[in-house]
Amino acid sequence: MDYGIKGRWALVCGASKGLGFGCARALALEGAHVVLVARGAEALAQAVERLKAEPGLPAGTQVLGVAADITQPEGRAAALAAQPAYDIVVTNAGGPPPGDFREWDRDAWIKALEANMLTPIELIKATVDGMAARGFGRIVNITSSAVKAPIDILGLSNGARTGLTGFVAGLARSERIASANVTINNLLPGAFDTDRLRATMEGTVKKTGQTLDAVAEARRKTVPSRRFGTPDEFGAACAYLCSAQAGYVTGQNFLIDGGAYPGTF
Question: Gene3D superfamilies from the xrefs (predicted)?
Fold first, then answer.
């Protein structure tokens, strides 16, 4: 299926690896020009070259990299300067650390809010009106399955990402936005095979003394599909939400977790 986004410009944050790279790859393979943003210049350069060499990349597809911290004003300015008229924006930032809420001071909360709530809102504010004026826009926020099923040790993430979810729920249904063929949706990943998941499991290894294989196997058993998701699977879901065919889908939270969430709704 042709997703109808060939030649459109996409900004993908946290795109040097993991879920962000999976999204950038899927969009580029659909012919969208992609600007990848990440803090690590070396990893970003490798990601850009890897994507440019991707078999099946449509001829003429542009892939650019901006080494910047998207959670900082200057980082956002650099990303937005790379292409002044984005048709697609995928927001993504590393999640805050786990822990006990009693140990988090105000600075820890502000940092979490800056990265996982306020930064996406700033990127939306900077791009959504231009999308509406041009009659096409797709914004996808990578949040977390913890928005649907909060995890006690991830209180910083639970709070910040849920705040973003509430904001998006209202804005996405704004007549001025929705009637202009601009959609805003959230992707909620569960356990995906990424550096973030490995770091979390390594933390469990240090606390419990178990082997990494044992910790990983125990985590897989919490997923009905008995495996971790892949960045390519996640990217494919993102590409669909960014497609012309998804124009009637907005304000939604798509949980991708292999069936781990036990609820009906």
Answer: NAD(P)-binding Rossmann-like Domain
Q: Full-prediction pTM beyond 0.70? A: yes
What residues contact 52, with CB distance under 8 A and at least 6 apart? 63
| 158: phi then psi, degrees, rounded to nearest 5 | -55, -50
d(CA 156, CA 170): 22
Phi then psi dihedrals of residue 254, to 5 deg? -95, 110
Angle ∠(233,15,30) on CA atoms, nearest 5: 55
Parallel/antiparallel/unpaired status of strands 182-189 and 137-142: parallel
Segments of 103-227 assigned E as strands: 137-142, 182-189
Helices 18-29 and 41-52, axial angle in degrees (round to 10) = 30
Q: In whole angstroms, give the CA distance from residue 243 to residue 160.
A: 28
